[in-house]
Description:
Blueprint: H1 2-20, H2 25-32, H3 37-45, H4 48-51, H5 63-84, H6 87-96, H7 111-122, H8 127-154, H9 160-164, H10 176-184, H11 188-196, H12 213-230, H13 236-260, H14 265-271
Helix pairs in contact: 1-13, 5-13, 7-8, 8-12, 13-14
Amino acid sequence: MAEELLGYSGLVTKARAMRGRLLKREDFERITEFQTVQETISFLKEQESYGSIYGGHEEIQHRGQVEELIYHSIWEDYRKLYRFGNQSQRRVMELYLPQLQFQTMSSEVDAAYFVRIWKEIGRFSDKKAQSILQEIFGTQIDWLNIMWIYRAQHFFHQKPESIRTILIPVHYKVRKEEISQLLETEFSEEFEEVLGNTVYFRGKGETVRIQDEISYHQVMEKMYRRICRREPFSMAPVLYYFYLKELEIAHLTTALEGIRYQLPPKDIRKMILME
């Protein structure tokens, strides 16, 4: 424990300090009330986590320009934490790097990425670190597959054989046969019944109501909180920060889009999963 504390205290403290500077719910509630993109830009310039990236960019006036700087902010945070980490900690951050949206709205995540990462995690000699990373990435893989199946079935009406080609061929807690059962469902009720019998819900007395992206983020948030409580001196708090920062950037860019098109505040709040 003392060795873990010594090896991770500085990095974890830095990540937690960054987390404390993330925008709060009340900040987003305020943003959704803005009438113009320029109001949002002025607000972000006042925030500790974004004010510094505006230095020397007083010409920023438009949504595209501010989004570019917002994406750049997560790269700056990654760079600071990477410089602070040791060799093994940097290795973990390098695994996560392709997920970060630091240049455009899209990251470099696809099924091949997760297959590669899963194999890389299996090569870790530190079994405790390996277990933590398997829980983090494994949960993400399970729920991306669940979300992709649900979307493909219920929004695009794709057939099971077509959906299977886009899935990540890695199984963590959701077994192969359970994936097959999910693929064969036709209605939301059937999908939720099968999902309710997976390890994520079985025996917990929870009512399953799949809400696509909302359900995904609820599970990921719960998973990160659980691991960070159990393993406070590990890479979990660092990866949790990256996850929260990515979510914040997604909320900001969605809010900017809503403001640009003059959507009502309540609609923007709904779009960024606040209601």
